Description:
Number of domains: 1
Distance between the termini: 30 Å
Shape: flat
Helix content: 55-70%
Strand content: under 5%
Largest sheet: none
Number of strands: 0
Oligomer: single chain
Radius of gyration: 19 Å
Amino acid sequence: MSDLSKEEQELLRSVESGEWQSVAKPERELSNYRTLARATFQKDRRINIRISSKDLDALQKRALLEGIPYQTLITSVLHKFVAGR
């Protein structure tokens, strides 16, 4: 168990102690969560902002490291900020 991170160890402990229960209708649950996710992340508004070249370059490099488009990274950062995370 030493190869596991703290988070993985805690998850394993909770599974082994029986804290997890199977969902009666998993396809229905997944469908509900998919619907919620689509509604949450639907991009239905457009904005234009001015940003320094230096910051944009840094964002683009970071997005490249993350393997995502830089606009997606910006959207994610903004979403986390307004959600308090």
